[in-house]
Amino acid sequence: MVTISDVAAFAGVGAGTVSRVLNESPRVRPETRARVLAAMAALDYRPNPLAQRLSRGRCQTLGIVVPFFTHASAVERLRGVVAALDGSRYDLVLFNVETPLHRDEHFATLTRSGRADGLLVMSLRPPPGDLDRLIAAGMPIVLVDVRVEGVSAVVTDDVEGGRLATRHLLDLGHERIAFLGQDPANPFGFTASGDRERGYVEVLGSSGVDRDESLTRYGSHDRSVAQALAEELFSLDEPPTAVFASSDVQATGVLAAARSAGLRVPEDVSVVGYDDVEISAYAGLTTVRQPLFESGLLGTQILLEALEGGAVPAVGERVLPVELVQRTSTAAVHRSAA
Amino acid sequence: MVTISDVAAFAGVGAGTVSRVLNESPRVRPETRARVLAAMAALDYRPNPLAQRLSRGRCQTLGIVVPFFTHASAVERLRGVVAALDGSRYDLVLFNVETPLHRDEHFATLTRSGRADGLLVMSLRPPPGDLDRLIAAGMPIVLVDVRVEGVSAVVTDDVEGGRLATRHLLDLGHERIAFLGQDPANPFGFTASGDRERGYVEVLGSSGVDRDESLTRYGSHDRSVAQALAEELFSLDEPPTAVFASSDVQATGVLAAARSAGLRVPEDVSVVGYDDVEISAYAGLTTVRQPLFESGLLGTQILLEALEGGAVPAVGERVLPVELVQRTSTAAVHRSAA
DNA sequence: TTGAAAGCGTTACCAC
DNA sequence: GTGGTAACGCTTTCAA
After folding, report:
1. In chain B, which residues have their Cβ closer than 8 Å to the Cβ of A94?
2. CB under 8 Å, gap of 24 or more: what pairs does B190-196 form?
3. I need a surface site. Which of A20, A285, B273, B317 has the fewest CB within 10 A?
4. pLDDT tens digits, residue range A241-288?
5. pTM for this structure?
6. Can you give the distance from the CA of residue A123 to the C1' of nucleotide C7 in angstroms?
């Protein structure tokens, strides 16, 4: 393994000079630089990243904490992260979270800094103690899809998204609109589904439509779970004429349930999803689009800026827009059915 | 920042002893250990990973090189990788590849070792020069979904997969079977699609069915591209009665094309995919299942073993099984249509 | 069993 | 401009 002092000896200079050449310092005479470069080439020298990192006190790494990274929406966000990192000198290390214990373990190890120079946290609230420790240690942190007082974040307005979906269904004449989402009291403290539900409840209320609590179902993010819940809804004495699912994956579960119940979409039942992931266009799903890719991209860019700037980033919140994307899973309510 | 010598001073021992406690060496008297542990707790000491890595000469990191990591099949493999890494002390750093240039850049930086202690390479052939350099440097490497002489690999038999799909369609009485896949002369040198095509050609031949070259279409992995290609096929004077697509994503494009051409699946046309990703069950797609999750898991386990063992791993090839999964997108050919 | 000290390969400060 | 030389914080060898 050829080291910096080998190069220095070969070129007849000091190690410091080689380092300066390496780091493109202007304080090196051109001829010296040339000699050093020649030596590096001759010896096929590669600086040892480990030594650089220790010496600089930075590990050239961005940590991404993401729950259920295989979910379509998470993958889409990660795509944005990777795009933002492309061409930068930072490595991306992935911390997947499937359980609250997982989350705590990751944050515990991350507070022993040196594993990441900056942190992008998706959808989940870091444990307060660890968060304080990280902030105190000067670790730049950007949140995506979750907000915490005093931390920069890229978010969307989930309540508004819930309103958009519900208003769309009301406009089509639906009144028996089911909501299928995640229990607001989930172990991770995810708030997105609950916020969308709030938008749904709010719009129902302001439209003078009584909310029928029996049309609300909570379950995990699995398609199969959503399908089972939707089958329950469809077998009610007075089934819903429309279902608002708080994610597209769940919405496809609803579509599958409709199919197995012999219901036509959108003739017999309308379905609205949330996210607009890749599968949604294929499924013809009307949905609320949130800019997933952009959220990952922007969050990472903010983080990189903070890292380059050196200073602690100004805390700020960027709100990305949501919009309704109309496809073929929604239509005017079929009055005779009701 | 509290360091190892702070702890040593506090506990009244040498730094070496603290290190031994840290690394669970048995050569520490219990009472000494207790004193050191107390000191660490009192000072809230966290070892600096950067220093540990430099000193040990290992960076506790696994590099994963993966083309198009957002593709469903890649995500599923990554899920296996993450599962295998869960609980290990290794970080996962992700190198996404979208272009041949991308690939070369990643391998070039990786050869300056110190960014990863081991490498898992998916689906693509490392540039020979870099590969030799990496192997010479003693970097453990495991390939998944690709084989290179002299390197450990986890693979499946894609030719056999192609045979399974084709035989299934022949058994159903189809003879005009289209193949929709990737150009064997693609810039990455991906071979999976080409191998599946070989299986297809082979079985057609051995069954005495003439292969109609006009029923072969090549395109990128996008659903929309596959859909367009399938639309071409369906508008032929003598359209195919079945399509074998070399991935499930492409197969769903075929399904969409059938839908837009007014063809019923499977009554008018049968479709077989490949991979068995999550969406396939939802789409009711008959497909050739390959163990994606398992391939990532096993590849990573082999890599970890090599890393723990210290020695260069024995070069070996693990072949995972493929199987036909029958769903509702295939049926006996409708003779009257032909 | 333990302490002292020599690495690990850079960077960065301080003279010259 | 450049060389010499402390750091950086840990692991590990060598004595004791």
Report:
1. 82, 92-94
2. B190/B67, B190/B123, B190/B124, B191/B146, B191/B158, B192/B123, B192/B145, B192/B158, B192/B246, B193/B246, B193/B247, B195/B158, B195/B159, B195/B161, B195/B162, B196/B158, B196/B159, B196/B161, B196/B162, B196/B165, B196/B244, B196/B246, B196/B274, B196/B288
3. B317
4. 999 999 999 999 999 999 999 999 999 999 999 999 999 999 999 999
5. 0.95
6. 44
